[in-house]
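so my prof wants the structure for this chain in the tokens format not the other one, which i didnt know existed until like an hour ago. anyway here's the sequence
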Amino acid sequence: MPDFSTEIDIEPYEYVSACSKREIVELLESLVEGGHISRSAVIAIETDRNKNLLDEEWDVITDKLNQNRLMLSNEEEELIRKISKRF
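here's what i got, hopefully its the right format
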């Protein structure tokens, strides 16, 4: 009997837009388990929906700090550590 194979070329956004919410959650879980994204990234996506302007501004500030960590002076880094230890 002949053997046939089929290939479908779709873009990732096409696949995701065709998924239900349950399927998207399964996809995210699979990406976390595969080590492609972190669990905190998924949590951040879930909480982004309810953010107000101050929350979004805070995210911008902390993202800048995170991206430029190696450019901080020792004093600046120590100050950030002291602030974080308060919580």
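also thought this was worth mentioning. The two ends are 68 Å apart (CA to CA).
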